[in-house]
TrEMBL record:
It is an enzyme of class 1 (oxidoreductase). This is Aldehyde dehydrogenase family protein. One of its GO terms (molecular function) is oxidoreductase activity. It comes from the Bacteria. Signal peptide: none annotated. Keywords: Oxidoreductase. Residues 9-458 form the Aldehyde dehydrogenase domain. Its EC number is 1.2.1.-. The keyword Oxidoreductase applies. The keyword Manganese does not apply. CDD domains: ALDH (cd07078).
Length: 469
């Protein structure tokens, strides 16, 4: 049972492009969290006994329904988080694809057997862990929720979902739609911010807490789980470096850096957060990057331009600008951007900085905004060493024509994903396991099915014949 109650004042949601109030939600308190978890517990046994094929069929039907309302969800995403419609639509369609993927993979998830003596067998059988608390973020809310919820459902778990308080209507619309295809209690939703998430993650009847969000929230969840025994899956964000090696085409490299830094306003878990550029290409790279930045615009984009929506809210803009202003005050140079624009909303321009030092906050911490901080280094080795000197461990990108450098980089960087010569990308079904402050556990791909299940070893021997006396 939960023991504390959060502040039950309504949460106000504003359109980050206009500052207009677009909704309010009442956060769930202890009683509502207890009720949601209780329903999940009550549904758990029946859902676990449902055949994998039947579970997968229901999830696949839900995926088709998500496709059917993709435009509605993308518009709602734009209204609540500011993500441009086309980008948001891509995220919703990716979510539907993820549900379909797990519907295919779920029935194929299997264990192993070991042969002992001729008459004995050991079975290693995966089974559902029970109740999964899925606590999801605002920056790609539908796609992330689809991954965690889909993997949990097809492996026989029930789910209580807490979407981000910054897009609660979107989160509830998606989850309620999926839940409409499932038995009662298999998927429930609770609204709220950090206090509600704390109640949910510390609930004694929750068996798994799967969280994508901040380092502070992830740390609090891990501490709570230490008391309840729940398994924890965390993706806490990162401070992802990009290394630009000597010999690359600086214009191409600038395009990759801009994409990595500015896509979704720099509000992607694996956004480029800091750039180490070899001095041999630095001048051309910085000029090309500054030109690229001017193509990311807040108005409807024309040919050759890309839409840059607002940040999720003004609080996030204040955080981003504090990093930039502190760097400028300490001697950095803004080639483009770096100032808060006039007018409504939470817009911030695509920004390019240089003249950075390793200890600046914009280098050491996650900014999560459309900022490309460039540090010029004398060698690939220096860039790699500085990129690796970081307690986060989510992802990294290396742009290099030298495959020996690529090989050294992917081995030396203590992160879950290393991308060589591409800021984004990866095969469908790919998985990653963050390190350090960035979290723990696989959050995507077939490996997430393993995370959502517990393996039970069963040793079987025949009973000896009865000897009548």
């Amino acid at each position: 049972m939960t023991t504390a109650a959060p502040d039950l004042a309504d949460i106000e949601i504003r359109d980050p492009a206009t500052d207009e109030v677009v909704g309010r939600v009442r956060p769930a308190g202890a009683g509502q969290v207890d009720d949601a978890v209780g329903r999940a517990v009550a549904a758990s046994s029946g859902w676990a006994r449902t055949s994998p094929g039947d579970r997968a069929g229901l999830v696949k039907d839900a995926a088709a329904a998500v496709r059917g309302v993709a435009e509605e969800l993308a518009r709602l995403n734009e209204t609540e988080t500011g993500r441009p419609y086309d980008d948001g639509l891509g995220g919703v369609l990716a979510a539907a694809g993820t549900l379909e993927q797990y519907a295919e993979l779920g029935p194929l998830h299997r264990g192993r057997s070991l042969q002992g003596d001729w008459s004995a067998t050991d079975l290693m059988v995966p089974g559902p862990r029970g109740v999964v608390a899925a606590i999801t973020p605002w920056n790609d809310p539908v796609a992330v929720a689809a991954g965690l919820i889909g993997a949990a459902l097809v492996t026989g778990n029930t789910v209580v979902h807490k979407p981000s308080e910054r897009c609660p209507h979107l989160g509830r619309r998606f989850a309620d739609l999926v839940a409409s295809f499932l038995p009662d209690g298999v998927l429930t939703v609770v609204d709220g911010a950090g206090p509600t998430g704390a109640l949910l993650s510390a609930h004694a009847a929750v068996d798994v807490v799967a969280h994508v969000g901040s380092i502070a929230a992830g740390r609090a969840i891990a501490e709570a789980a230490a008391g309840t025994g729940a398994k924890v899956l965390l993706e806490n964000g990162g401070n992802d470096p990009l290394i630009v090696d000597d010999g690359v085409d600086p214009v191409w490299a600038a395009g990759q850096a801009a994409l990595g830094s500015y896509a979704n306003g720099g509000q992607v878990c694996v956004s480029v957060e800091r750039i180490y550029c070899h001095a041999g290409v630095a001048d051309e790279f910085l000029a090309a990057l500054a030109e690229e930045a001017t193509r990311w615009v807040h108005r409807p984009s024309a040919e050759g331009e890309k839409a840059l929506g607002p940040l999720v809210d003004r609080r996030q803009r204040e955080h981003v600008h504090a990093h930039v202003a502190e760097a400028l005050q300490a001697g950095a140079t803004a080639h483009v951007g770096g100032a808060v624009p006039d007018g409504p909303g939470a817009f911030y321009p695509a920004t390019v900085l240089s003249g950075l030092t390793p200890r600046m906050r914009i280098v050491r911490e996650e900014t999560f905004g459309p900022v490309a901080p460039v540090r010029v280094v004398d060698s690939f080795e220096q860039g790699l060493a500085e990129a690796a000197d970081d307690p986060h461990g989510l992802a990294a990108t290396v742009l290099t024509p030298d495959m020996a450098h690529a090989q050294e980089a992917w081995r030396a960087l203590r992160v879950g994903t290393v991308k060589i010569n591409a800021a984004f990308g990866g095969a469908p079904g790919g998985a990653a396991e963050p390190r350090g402050l960035s979290g723990s556990g696989f959050g995507y791909g077939p490996e997430l099915l393993d995370e959502m299940t517990a393996t039970k070893t069963v040793h079987i021997e025949p009973c000896p014949p009865r000897h009548d006396r």
